[in-house]
Amino acid sequence: MQLSTTLPTALGVFTLTADEDGLCGLSFPAEILPVPHESLVEITSHSLLNEAGQQLLAYLRGALRDFDLPLSIQGTAFQLQVWEQLRTIAYGETMTYGELAERIGGRHKARAVGGAAHANPLAIIIPCHRLIGAGGKLTGFGGGLPMKQALLDLEESSFKD
């Protein structure tokens, strides 16, 4: 069974979702909830959701660079491979879709990498916002380009501290 909670932040209200195995969803402000509304719980009543909320808030303050949470994610073998590679992009760094595709078999997979990144159920925690287009251009992001820019700016300013 999945349980969700909302987390108000300076960037809007996020929704965190967990199942019995780990964190399985993070929805951006204004996204449709991934589970029925009646599954919402008070954040403090679920230890994993509480910890995920605390870590997300610390990240948004610039006080946390790496999340340490049990994850429960489902995807195709290719998506899981892309999501694992996303986790290797260091805080404050970026990588192009083509560069990541090259790591897993060739630049010709860049569009497929973009599709897998878009399907990422744990954006921010699995940092797909660190993927950029060729030449440094910001391209697609489930939370919208302003959110992507805000997260990159946060990491850039925190990285210098």
Helix-strand layout with pairing:
Layout: E1 3-9, E2 12-18, E3 23-27, H1 47-60, H2 77-86, E4 95-96, H3 97-103, H4 110-118, E5 131-132, H5 145-160
Parallel strand pairs: 4-5
Antiparallel strand pairs: 1-2, 2-3
Describe this structure in words.
Helix 2 crosses helix 4 (110-118) and helix 3 packs across helix 4 (110-118). The chain has five helices and five strands, in the order E-E-E-H-H-E-H-H-E-H. 35% of the residues lie in helices and 14% in strands. It has helices at 47-60, 77-86, 97-103, 110-118, 145-160, and strands at 3-9, 12-18, 23-27, 95-96, 131-132. The model has no long low-confidence stretch (mean pLDDT 88). By secondary structure, it is α+β, with helices and mostly antiparallel strands.
State the gist of this model:
The chain has five helices and five strands, in the order βββααβααβα. It is of the alpha+beta class and 161 residues long. The longest helix is centred in the C-terminal third of the chain and has 16 residues, at 145-160.
The helix content is 25-40%
Q: Quote the distance from N terminus to C terminus.
A: 41 Å
Number of helices: 5
- How many extended strands? 5
Helix-strand makeup class: alpha+beta
In percent, how much strand structure appears in the residues?
5-15%
Radius of gyration: 15 Å
Shape: globular
Order of helices and strands: EEEHHEHHEH
Biggest sheet: strands side by side, in what order?
1-2-3
Indicate the low-confidence ranges by residue numbers: none
**How does the major sheet shape up?**
3 strands, antiparallel
Mean pLDDT: 88
